[in-house]
Design a protein that fits this description.
Layout (H helix, E strand, L loop, with lengths): L2 H9 L39 E2 L14 H4 L9 E8 L11 E3 L2 E5 L4 E6 L5 E6 L9 E4 L6 E6 L4 E6 L5 E6 L6 E2 L5 E3 L2 E8 L1 H4 L13 E6 L5 E6 L6 E5 L5 E4 L10 E3 L4 E5 L14 E6 L5 E6 L33 E4 L5 E6 L4 E6 L5 E7 L14 E2 L3 E5 L21 E5 L5 E5 L19 E3 L2 E5 L4 E6 L5 E6 L3 E2 L7 E2 L9 E3 L2 E6 L11 E7 L3
Antiparallel strand pairs: 1-3, 2-38, 3-4, 4-5, 5-6, 7-8, 8-9, 9-10, 11-13, 12-13, 13-14, 14-15, 16-17, 18-19, 19-20, 20-21, 22-23, 23-24, 24-25, 26-27, 27-28, 28-29, 30-31, 31-32, 32-33, 34-35, 36-37, 37-38
C-alpha cells in the first residue's frame, strides 16, 4: 500500500464519496419537512430520566445500560425494527455516537454540524455549525448558577464547546491544544462542574514524511470549567517536553519523546478522586514510559498519581508500514496503543477493577487501589496496527464483553479487506480473566468489501451484547449462551425523515446507544477501505 494513501486515510484528508448507487442530494438540514412542528417544552430540570449521556453511559465508562434505562429485555430484542433514519447532508462518514437525554438526541454529523433531534421522531430541534467535524460523543449537564442545560463536545481541530441544550446557542469555545496536529476524538467527560477533555493527534501519520520534524505532540488531559470554558489545569501524558534527538537520512531534525495520545473518554473514580486515561504509542525515540499505559491524575490538580505501562518501547509512525521509513523509529514497536476507555467496575465481592482492551489483542485488569497493579491479562486476538481490541468494551459486575478486530488487508497492495480475517466476540470473567463466552467470527460469504472484524465499540444491556461489524451488520447476542438474537444489515439505502439521500456502510468506532425501548446507531465509517455512509438509524421494539 502506498504511504500517501495510508496518511490520507488516517488523517481524514481523503475525500471518500458515497457509494455510486446512493445518489447524493444535499438539501438544507433545516427544511420544513425535518423541523419539529412544536416548540421545545419540558426539557428536564433533572437528568435522572431514561438517558444515555456521554460515551460510556456513566462516568465509569461501563457501556452497560441498566434495564430500567434500556426499556428493553432479551425477549424483546428480536422484535427491533427500523423506526426512522436521518441523513447527514454532504457527508461520507457517520462516525459519532448519539447521546439521548430528556427525549432529545444530540449527535455530531460528520458534516461540521451538531444536531439536536427529537429522539422518538428524528425531527430537528436545532443545528449548530462547528469549525471542524465532531467525532466525539456528547455530554449533557446543568449550567452552574442557572436552570439551563448545556451540551459539551470537541472537534478534530482540538476545540471544546459548550452549547445551550435548549436553543443551540454557543456558550463558549476553548482551544485546548495549539499543536497543528492536535484533535479531540475521545469524548470529554463531565463531572461535578468540570469537563475533562482528552487530546489526541494525527502526527503519527503526518510525522511519517521525511521532511517533517518528527515529532513534537504530547497527549494531554485538559480540565475546563464547564460554565466558562476556562482552563482549570492541563496535564501532559509525557511530562518531559520533546527535545532534538538526531537527524534522519535527509538531514531533517527529529524530536522526542512524543505521542501517548488519548483516543478515548476519561474515566472518573469518585472514591479515589482520580481521573483515568488510556494512552497510545510513542511517535519517536526515546519511547515514553507513559505510552501504551493507564495513567491516573488527581481530579482537582491534574497531578499524575501513578502510571502502569503494559507495552514498553512502542515507538511507531504510520510510515513504518511503507517503503520510505526515514522517520520510522529504530527498533520500532508494534503500534499497540489503547483506543478505548478503561472501565471502572466494582465486583460483587467489593473488589474494584480497571479493565481495558488493547490493540495488541490483550484484555488487562488493573487494581486502581494499588496504583494499577496488574491483576490478570488475557489475549483474545492476534493484534496489530488495526487491532486487536479497538474502540470500546462493556462490563457489568461479573464480566467484561470484548470485540476483536484483527482487521487485515489482502496481500495484493490494493488495501482490499481480507474477508477471511478477524472477528470474534468474547465475555471474560472479571475476577479471573477466563473466557466464559465466545462468539466466533461470522463469515462474509460472497459479500463485497467485507470483513468480519469487530472494531466498533460494543454495548450491553442485561442479558444482551450488541456488536457492529465492519461489513455493516449490527448483531445482538445472548450473554448466557452466545445465541444470535437479532441482526440487521445497515449497509443499504434509506429514505430519511429529513429528505437527505442516505446510505449505511461500515460499522466502526462508535457503538449503539439504547434508551427507553429504542436503539440508535450511526452507519458509515469510510476509513480502512470500509464502506462509506451518512446515516443515523433509530430502531424500536414493535409489538408482536
Amino acid at each position: 500500500m502506498r504511504r500517501r494513501d495510508i496518511i490520507a486515510i488516517v488523517t481524514g484528508i481523503a475525500a471518500l464519496p458515497l457509494a455510486a448507487h446512493a445518489q447524493q442530494q444535499t438539501p438544507p438540514a433545516s427544511t420544513d419537512i425535518s423541523k419539529c412542528a412544536h416548540n421545545l417544552d419540558g426539557f428536564p430540570r433533572r437528568l435522572d430520566g431514561p438517558r444515555w449521556n456521554g460515551w460510556g453511559v456513566d462516568i465509569n465508562n461501563s457501556r452497560f445500560q441498566p434495564a430500567a434505562m434500556a426499556g428493553m429485555t432479551p425477549e424483546q430484542v428480536p422484535r427491533l425494527q427500523l423506526k426512522w433514519a436521518f441523513g447527514f447532508p454532504g457527508a461520507s462518514a457517520a462516525n459519532a455516537q448519539p447521546t439521548i437525554v430528556g427525549g432529545l438526541l444530540f449527535v455530531g454529523g460528520g458534516d461540521r454540524k451538531v444536531y439536536a433531534l427529537d429522539a422518538r421522531s428524528g425531527c430537528i430541534r436545532w443545528t449548530f455549525a462547528t469549525e471542524a467535524m465532531v467525532r466525539t460523543a456528547i455530554s449533557v449537564g446543568p449550567i452552574s448558577g442557572t436552570d439551563q442545560f448545556a451540551v459539551f463536545f470537541g472537534d478534530v481541530r482540538a476545540s471544546a464547546y459548550a452549547v445551550n441544550a435548549t436553543t443551540g446557542a454557543l456558550m463558549w469555545k476553548t482551544k485546548v491544544e495549539d499543536h497543528p496536529a492536535a484533535r479531540i476524538v475521545g469524548a470529554p467527560t463531565l463531572y461535578s462542574g468540570v469537563l475533562y477533555v482528552p487530546v489526541s493527534s494525527f502526527e503519527e501519520a503526518t510525522g511519517s514524511k521525511a521532511s517533517y520534524q518528527c515529532c513534537t505532540f504530547r497527549g494531554s488531559v485538559v480540565a475546563l470549567d464547564s460554565r466558562t470554558g476556562r482552563q482549570v489545569w492541563k496535564a501532559y501524558t509525557i511530562p518531559e517536553a520533546p527535545r532534538p534527538t538526531k537527524q534522519n537520512v535527509i538531514g531533517t531534525q527529529l524530536y522526542g519523546p512524543a505521542g501517548a495520545a488519548i483516543w478515548s473518554a476519561p474515566t472518573i473514580d469518585v472514591q479515589r478522586h482520580a481521573v483515568y486515561v488510556a494512552t497510545g504509542n510513542s511517535y519517536s525515540n526515546p519511547p515514553a514510559e507513559t505510552s501504551d499505559a493507564i495513567l491516573a491524575f488527581d481530579l482537582a490538580t491534574g497531578r499524575m498519581l501513578w502510571h502502569r505501562q503494559v507495552t514498553a518501547k512502542d515507538s511507531y509512525v504510520v510510515g513504518c508500514l511503507g517503503a520510505d521509513q526515514s522517520n520510522c523509529p529504530e527498533d520500532h514497536g508494534p503500534d499497540s496503543d489503547f483506543g478505548q476507555s478503561p472501565i471502572l467496575v466494582s465486583l460483587r465481592n467489593g473488589q474494584r477493577v480497571l479493565v481495558v482492551g488493547q490493540k495488541s489483542g490483550v484484555v488487562h485488569a488493573l487494581d486502581p487501589d494499588q496504583e494499577g497493579k496488574i491483576l490478570w491479562q488475557t489475549p483474545v486476538g492476534k493484534g496489530g496496527p488495526l487491532g486487536g481490541i479497538m474502540w470500546g468494551s462493556a462490563a457489568d459486575q461479573e464480566r467484561v464483553y470484548v470485540a476483536n478486530s484483527d482487521l487485515r488487508f489482502l496481500p495484493d497492495g490494493t488495501m482490499s479487506l481480507d474477508p477471511t480475517a478477524g472477528g470474534g466476540l468474547f465475555a471474560l470473567d472479571l475476577a479471573t480473566g477466563k473466557v466464559s463466552m465466545q462468539v466466533p467470527p461470522v463469515p462474509c460469504g460472497d459479500r463485497s468489501q467485507c470483513s468480519p472484524a469487530l472494531s466498533a465499540a460494543v454495548t450491553a444491556i442485561p442479558g444482551v451484547i450488541f456488536s457492529g461489524e465492519v461489513s455493516g451488520y449490527l448483531r445482538a447476542f445472548a450473554t448466557a449462551d452466545a445465541r444470535l438474537l437479532w441482526e440487521v444489515d445497515t449497509a443499504r439505502d434509506y429514505a430519511t425523515v429529513n429528505g437527505v439521500s442516505a446510505h449505511g456502510g461500515a460499522m466502526d468506532g462508535p457503538g449503539p446507544t439504547i434508551v427507553d425501548g429504542m436503539l440508535y446507531v450511526a452507519s458509515g465509517y469510510a476509513q480502512w477501505s470500509g464502506l462509506p455512509g451518512n446515516v443515523l438509524l433509530a430502531f424500536e421494539v414493535r409489538n408482536p
